[in-house]
């Protein structure tokens, strides 16, 4: 098997395509949640705690000198990242919980019994004929 045909078999395998789709959707979902956190949740939270913007919280370890920039410990960005993570984790938890509920509902639906095979149908007809014949006697 050549290198190209091996790669083709690897790349078009079903689970690889599913994984690629999952990564793309995950990246888009991450952008949506980041916007939710930064644009919707954090502004009211900042107002509630006195107008504090977490991303601006920092400690200056060394002031800027000439062309040398200041050394800053930006712990506010770390707090913001933790909040982003918690919201993303909660959103994923809710999504998985919803999917699991749908799966349970799907599993709970009774399946229709399979149609009888030709042999079963023929045997049923023979049984009914024999029974009607016996009833005549």
TrEMBL record:
UniProt KW keywords: Cell inner membrane, Cell membrane, Ion channel, Ion transport, Membrane, Transmembrane, Transmembrane helix, Transport
Keyword Phosphoprotein on entry: no
Record's subcellular location: Cell inner membrane; Cell membrane
Entries under PROSITE patterns matching the protein: MSCL (PS01327)
Cellular compartments per GO CC: plasma membrane
Its membrane topology: Multi-pass membrane protein
Keyword Cytoplasm: no
GO function terms (MF aspect): mechanosensitive monoatomic ion channel activity
Listed transmembrane segments: 20-38, 78-99
Function: Channel that opens in response to stretch forces in the membrane lipid bilayer. May participate in the regulation of osmotic pressure changes within the cell.
Family that this chain belongs to: Belongs to the MscL family.
Protein name: Large-conductance mechanosensitive channel
The species this protein was found in: Pseudomonas flexibilis
